[in-house]
Design goal:
Blueprint lengths: L7 H51 L24 E4 L11 E7 L9 E7 L4 E6 L9
Antiparallel strand pairs: 1-2, 2-3, 3-4
């Protein structure tokens, strides 16, 4: 008489195979999630820099009032547990040297996880400096 079902050895082998596959897949999934979060921060800094440019032009090429988030009409940094944003008058003293930063503050974050956008309105350029988790972003 035969019994239907799996032996203990078969079940253990299946559990080991699933464990190995999970160990291989989890770091890749985690990296993809962190990259998606980094894109979120980069886009927020881009919106910020466009608001600064808009404010500067509307103020008749005067930077005062355009270098604080609270002064930019219609813009606030999103409340997120993933990033710490930094933008103030000391980082944006004039139209040629205006910096916005985002630092990754999620799990496994380190000091290198910073992206900086530097706006030079007179040259019409934005320079991006990426580190840590942000280095995975293209362009």
């Amino acid at each position: 008489m035969y019994k239907n079902g799996f032996t203990l050895i078969e079940v253990i082998i299946v559990v080991i195979i699933i464990g190995v596959l999970a160990a291989i897949a989890m770091p890749r999934v985690t990296n993809q999630v962190n990259t998606t979060k980094a894109v979120e921060a980069y886009r927020q800094l881009g919106v910020l820099m466009r608001k600064v440019q808009e404010c500067y032009i509307q103020n008749g090429d005067i930077m005062a009032g355009c270098n604080e988030v609270t002064a930019l009409s219609g813009y606030t940094f999103p409340v997120t547990p993933n990033f710490t944003y930094n933008f103030n008058s000391s980082l944006c003293p004039d139209a040629n040297n205006c910096v916005g930063q985002a630092s990754f503050s999620g799990t496994n974050a380190n000091a290198a996880d910073v992206i900086t956008l530097k706006l030079d309105i007179s040259a019409g350029s934005i320079t991006k400096t990426k580190g840590g988790i942000f280095s995975t972003l293209k362009n």
